[in-house]
């Protein structure tokens, strides 16, 4: 019998929910943006989710988390481009912005916690 899977960390669940909501929106972008900016955002979302899961089980979490923080910042800017190109309604932009802000807050807290941990010899 296999072990039960531990419950997801809240940041992982929030990122999963972001991917689940945002990818269908991005897949409806006009063709000339779907295969450029849309794909970049989608790949970034999957990278973010994958990275958080890897960090959860990694011994060296801090390095992974700091890279993910940069990835999240890229996603924020790419999403803002969608708004500036009139490809995303303001209401949806505000919603996705809140989701990313919540993820960023948790990610920042996790990074601070890892920085305060004593280094292993």
Automatic annotation (TrEMBL):
Limits of the bAvd-like domain: 11-113
InterPro entries: 23S_rRNA_IVS_sf, bAvd
Annotated protein name in UniProt: Diversity-generating retroelement protein Avd
SUPFAM superfamilies: IVS-encoded protein-like (SSF158446)
NCBIfam families tied to this protein: DivGenRetAVD
Alphabetized Pfam families for the sequence: bAvd
Domain of life, per lineage: Bacteria
Organism in which the protein naturally occurs: Thermoleptolyngbya oregonensis NK1-22
């Amino acid at each position: 019998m296999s072990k039960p899977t531990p419950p997801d960390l809240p940041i992982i669940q929030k990122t999963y929910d972001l991917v689940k909501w945002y990818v269908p929106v991005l897949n409806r972008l006009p063709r000339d943006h779907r295969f450029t900016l849309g794909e970049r955002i989608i790949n970034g979302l999957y990278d973010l989710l994958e990275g958080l899961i890897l960090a959860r089980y990694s011994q060296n979490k801090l390095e992974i988390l700091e890279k993910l923080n940069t990835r999240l910042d890229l996603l924020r800017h790419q999403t803002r481009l969608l708004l500036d190109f009139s490809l995303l309604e303001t209401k949806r932009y505000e919603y996705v912005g809140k989701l990313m802000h919540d993820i960023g807050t948790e990610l920042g807290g996790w990074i601070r916690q890892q920085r305060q941990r004593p280094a292993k010899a």
